[in-house]
Amino acid sequence: MKMRLIVTLVGATILMTLASLWMGQQAYTWFPPQASAESELIDDLFSFLTALGTFIFLGVAGTLGYSVLFSRAGRYDYSDGPPIEGNITLEIVWTAIPFALVIWIAAYSYQVYEQMDVRGPMEMVHLHMPATMEAAYAEPMDDSLPDSLPDSPTAGLPSARIAVQAKQWAWIFHYPGENGQDITSTELHLPVDHRIKLELTSDDVLHGLYIPAFRLKQDIIPNKTIDFEFTPTRIGTYRLRDSQYSGTYFAAMQADVVVESPQAYQSWLADAANRAPSPAYNRAAFEYNRAAEQTIVRGWETIPPAPPPIVNFAPKQAPDSPPV
Amino acid sequence: MANLSVEALDGNRAQPYPGAPDNWKRFFSFSTDHKVIGIQYIVTSFIFFLVGGLFAMIIRGELITPEANLVDRTIYNAMFTMHGSVMLFLWTFPVLVGLANYLVPLMIGARDMAFPRLNAAAFWMVPVVGVLMMGSFFVPGGPSQSGWWAYPPVSLQNPTGNLINGQVLWLLAVAISGVSSIMGAVNFVTTIFKMRAPGMTFFRMPAFVWTVLAAQLIQLFGLPALTAGAVMLLLDIVAGTSFFRPENGGNPVLYQHFFWFYSHPAVYVIVLPVFGIFSELFPVYARKPLFGYRVVAVSSLIITGLSGIVWVHHMYASGTPGWMRMLFMFTTMSISVPTGIKVFAWVATAFGGKLRLDTPMLFAMAGVVNFVFAGITGIMLGSVPVDIHVNNTYFVVGHFHYVVYGTVVFGIYAAIYHWFPKMTGRMYYEGLGKVHFWLTWLGTTLNFLPMHPAGLMGMPRRVASYDPEFAFWNVLASLGGFLLGLSTLPFILNMVSSWIQGEKAGNNPWRAIGLEWLISSPPPVENFEHLPIVIAEPYGYGKDEPLVSNLAELAESPG
Amino acid sequence: MTSEASIANQIESGIVEEHNEEANSKFGFWVFLLSESVIFLSFFAGYIVYKTTSTDWLPAGVEGLDTRDPAINTVVLISSSFVIYVAERFLHDKRLWGFRFFLLATMLMGSYFLYGQAVEWRGLEFGLTSGLYGATFYLLTGFHGLHVMTGVLLQTIMFFRSFIPGNYDKSSFGVDATSLFWHFVDVIWIILYGLIYVWQ
């Protein structure tokens, strides 16, 4: 009898482990493509958490399901179950194991965070936060985090510095040109495998820079400049979305991110520099200026969107133009 | 004791004695009977649950297609703002206060709450909050459209320029709701500390009372912080100060600290009593004592303590320093230990018992499974690197709906079914209850599970329009949302018709152990003719021991 | 009947029933004050964050606050805590005229504090909208001032209720609570004074 219980438990554990490992592998398919150095780290961490979570979920739900199937009271059975009030050993075990698990998860997360830090973005964020912190963190930013590290895939490549301006409801990207020229675009072009440095600013309210394919996100706070770094690793076109609710046309505040080879990037930049600034298509302004005929119910008064940004480069096919 | 029976006949406590014709008018009066107030809370908040649900269905209707084509964007934004506000301030908070109001005095063997008039006053503020929230639809500019977080500077923007606008009314409503909650919290804490029946020591209190205590303590230390933030926000809007106005040197991130210092613990204010409900129901329907009762009881207070030091996990992407992110990641994850203790205790209670799957138990078990799922996604969100990706996406929306719907609403339904015979003296229809359960379960899964993949793919929350790549998951979620709307119909039908003409239930239809089950259904005014003298721990299933020493005296009907 | 039950019965008839109302009210009032103090703590926390992180803290042309008059105000308010305690003792000994005298003295001292506060506000060259400095100053002193006003109001009610024959014979909860509230207002002021006037 005891033997049978042990075999059942071991069998169940093996099945659950296999299922969890399978789920952990599946987790990778739930994400957009991995397009930055940071995304691999995060996906690995998420896969690990999925596997662990699946195991716990199956354990709890399975035990409850087992009770439902095999411990039901008979129709006319009005007796009580065994008066078991607890089990000290069991209770210690199920306090200690979760405790150890969360320490493990937190330590692993911390490690990933540190690695991301080395490769780019996070620690920069608060550099331009409250004045006192600025002093404390300003030095390490310039010295201890060199553009390229020996073990990083971006070793030896120059970095690109781009200013990101967010406003209700448009993204404008400023590239430094020759002779102090300010090259502007409503599409974010990035050279692949280069360390990217963004300077995030907002004209009005909180916004959030979010590029799902890079797994990166940072709130943008008005009256502050926030440095943000990362390394795109895959050529392609991705979406940039506003992730911090910013008012009426929040959902329309999207832009395309084009990651291209350094040569293509350079020629794009040179081409953009030679174009005369012209108004770009802006979905919020477009919708605002159109009468409310599209919707069934008229809306309330809103903060008017900023006029369409005047930029050197705007994508021919507006990324967020309404369906034709 | 005779003088007390005279007091019991006070006019404003007009609850009939058992057998007397039911006087429904008392539910519309300033009654000070905790049982009347409890039912007033539950029914009022359920009406607002339907209102909030209607908003949710408009949201889901808009999101069934990628374009913003059902309602104007301003209306959509007002919908999700009011959906969140109504569901929290007018449904989950008050309905659980209502359940606690009804049950706590009965469970600890008291004749009423410590401050009955304060109790009634606290309840009657809820309709005022409701009127203000609904009234904000009719002011120029419409209701608040800044989300239920009301983050500045968006919440400071006032397109109409009116002083009386949706945001101001919203802040007033939240402030009144806060006053009501503080009054309730003072009342509950005093009642639990000072009004316990003889022999009702802390470790003889039912787990539900422990969780109510833990939850109300959170209200006491958390709500004032929100009040402080709300006062400053209100001054920014109406008096021209610049606490949170960045253009004048204000600090909008500070508001987020004030807000989340309360609003994260607020989740525990909601979920702790539901944990208590699970702890009450599992022993009854498994016919076994609650496994590890004392640890389960104490773990509630540990959660209270930890809930005060985790708030920054809502702000990982807000521009918080690295050390803060790491610190709060560790504290956040540590909360899973006391909650894990509870989950394992419920599972162990059911294991090897004699399970009876009546509607309350179905809801309770499904609620626990949903909660485990929500807990796992919660740990993922607690991990800073993962959160950097999924913060403010539908993954978060899915996670917390698994908490507030999958766990909390399931627990509330379980509690209402379980104590319905006690509150009304009649039994609900089991068949309709089961239909309700399966519709709710299917709707919940269909509505909230697809939100997780949508979020992982990068769909931000609060969007009125989205890229077509997310359409598949949104269609599923919308269908689930409409199904959840439908699922309330069998519930309402069940409750109304069984209250009117259901079978008489008797004092203890579940053969449950607990003070509330020793007296008549519905209990008389002042509950106990003689106060019970408690001589045993709760949940003595299978032990064949008496709970009180004066059982015969309790049931006497007053002359 | 078991011995446990008989003891419990005594408790029931003796304590639980009649006398509890006042004990409950006192307990409840303590709980309320602890909760109320968190609002002040939140404002203090906000003040500290603003003061330590703000780049231009003082509005243009403002040197800082004069500390002499507020110091007198502080002494008056803190001494009034002792005066109301004396009033409470008189009531405890059922000497109503002594109680009334010292309660009136407390009310006068509280009113003097409010007057002093008003004079200070009028003399300041910055307003509520003068940056974070002005906003936090008026928020903290104003919110505290509201509490002082509430305290004086409560004292007034207690004062007049002492003329109702036999009003305080059964229970002096109202006076106890008023007094407790007054001490609370005082303690908050001491912290506030330290934050705003001492730490400049």
Automatic annotation (TrEMBL), chain A:
It comes from the Bacteria. Residues 23-120 form the Cytochrome oxidase subunit II transmembrane region profile domain. Keywords: Copper, Electron transport, Membrane, Metal-binding, Respiratory chain, Translocase, Transmembrane, Transmembrane helix, Transport. InterPro entries: CcO_II, CcO_II-like_C, Cupredoxin, Cyt_c_oxidase_su2_TM_dom, Cyt_c_oxidase_su2_TM_sf. It is found in: Cell membrane; Membrane. It is a multi-pass membrane protein. Its cofactor is Cu cation. It catalyses: 4 Fe(II)-[cytochrome c] + O2 + 8 H(+)(in) = 4 Fe(III)-[cytochrome c] + 2 H2O + 4 H(+)(out). GO terms for biological process: ATP synthesis coupled electron transport. Coiled coil: none annotated. GO terms for cellular component: plasma membrane. Its EC number is 7.1.1.9. The chain crosses the membrane at residues 45-69, 90-110. Binds a copper A center. GO terms for molecular function: copper ion binding; cytochrome-c oxidase activity. Residues 157-271 form the Cytochrome oxidase subunit II copper A binding domain. Pfam families: COX2, COX2_TM. The keyword Electron transport applies. Belongs to the cytochrome c oxidase subunit 2 family. Subunits I and II form the functional core of the enzyme complex. Electrons originating in cytochrome c are transferred via heme a and Cu(A) to the binuclear center formed by heme a3 and Cu(B). This is Cytochrome c oxidase subunit 2. It comes from Pegethrix bostrychoides GSE-TBD4-15B.
Automatic annotation (TrEMBL), chain B:
Residues 24-535 form the Cytochrome oxidase subunit I profile domain. Keywords: Electron transport, Heme, Iron, Membrane, Metal-binding, Respiratory chain, Transmembrane, Transmembrane helix, Transport. The chain crosses the membrane at residues 36-59, 88-108, 120-139, 168-193, 205-238, 258-279, 291-314, 326-349, 361-382, 402-420, 432-450, 470-493. It comes from the Bacteria. It is found in: Membrane. PROSITE patterns: COX1, COX1_CUB. GO terms for cellular component: membrane. GO terms for molecular function: cytochrome-c oxidase activity; heme binding. PANTHER family: CYTOCHROME C OXIDASE SUBUNIT 1. This is Cbb3-type cytochrome c oxidase subunit I. It comes from Pegethrix bostrychoides GSE-TBD4-15B.
UniProtKB/TrEMBL annotation, chain C:
It comes from the Bacteria. Keywords: Cell membrane, Membrane, Transmembrane, Transmembrane helix. The chain crosses the membrane at residues 27-50, 70-87, 99-115, 135-160, 180-199. It holds the Pfam family COX3. One of its GO terms (biological process) is aerobic electron transport chain. GO terms for cellular component: plasma membrane. Belongs to the cytochrome c oxidase subunit 3 family. Residues 1-200 form the Heme-copper oxidase subunit III family profile domain. This is Heme-copper oxidase subunit III. GO terms for molecular function: cytochrome-c oxidase activity. It comes from Pegethrix bostrychoides GSE-TBD4-15B. It is a multi-pass membrane protein. It is found in: Cell membrane. InterPro entries: Cyt_c/ubiquinol_Oxase_su3 (IPR024791), Cyt_c_oxidase-like_su3 (IPR000298), Cyt_c_oxidase_su3-like_sf (IPR035973), Cyt_c_oxidase_su3_a-hlx (IPR013833). The keyword Membrane applies.
